[in-house]
Model the fold of this input.
Amino acid sequence: MDANLEHTTVLLQEAVDALLENTPESSSPAEDGVYVDATFGRGGHSRRILSRLSAHGRLIAYDRDLEAVARASDITDPRFSIRQTSFSHLGELPPASVSGILMDLGVSSPQIDSPARGFSFRFEGPLDMRMDTTRGISVAQWLADADVEHIMEVIRDYGEERFASGIAKAIVARRQEHGPLATTTELAQLVADTVKTREPGQNPATRTFQAFRIFINAELEELQQALDAALEVLQPGARLVVISFHSLEDRIVKQFIAKHSKDEYDRRTPFAAPKPMRLRALGRSRPSAAEVAGNPRSRSAIMRVAVRTATAPGTRA
Done:
């Protein structure tokens, strides 16, 4: 791994402050709790959390990226552990055992800037994009066989690309005439040749690369599973802090918090007692102008915070 590929953690102080703030529902000091960094990345949030915990506190990190897990070996703090798996496996923790969960959904700069990973249209590299390169298939392998309708749906649904149909047709035509796409620059050039107009300052391939990365890693499905699991493992008073970087992620997080921030009524049994609300929304925030100036990749970040509410005795939340 190239040591020169550095990552600047977005909303570092704000996220950790939100995660470790005591709430009325809390039964013990925040610094004594068990926390989860659900997306370790390069460990910026984890290191800051550890600096705030007491000797009794503990931090469990998750990441499916082997390079991220290797970087975590630099942390020798006995209060810290990491699991090389997706954060969708949060549900394997004991119920109501966690004092707070932080999810930073951004792709780390070392991932983006490493040509070998194939995440960026700016560098020549294999068209891979897998977070865990030991599992699943690469984008190139998928595009070698996918039909035009499936490719179009992925670009449209995960990239919100209005030229999805034309790009999909161009990919299949290229495959039939010259063989499958194999590199990032081949895909970027094909998209640039197909998309004739684009927002100022945005590369024509931006949305297509985003779509393929989200699809090949099942990112939105993993996020939904992780949020569902979080409800079960968070204890009353525990914080849920989620930083997202595009509208598809933020929409899922926003709707999830909204859904569980109100009592749920079962329309099939209108006279039954409603299920009590399970979350209380605490608001959203964005990076400051100073942070965006220093780290332009933070400009699209949105942080949403919620607290796990207490469940009334005898009810099932």
User: Anything to note?
Assistant: The radius of gyration is 21 Å. The beta strands are 34-37, 58-62, 80-83, 98-104, 234-244, 279-285, 302-308.
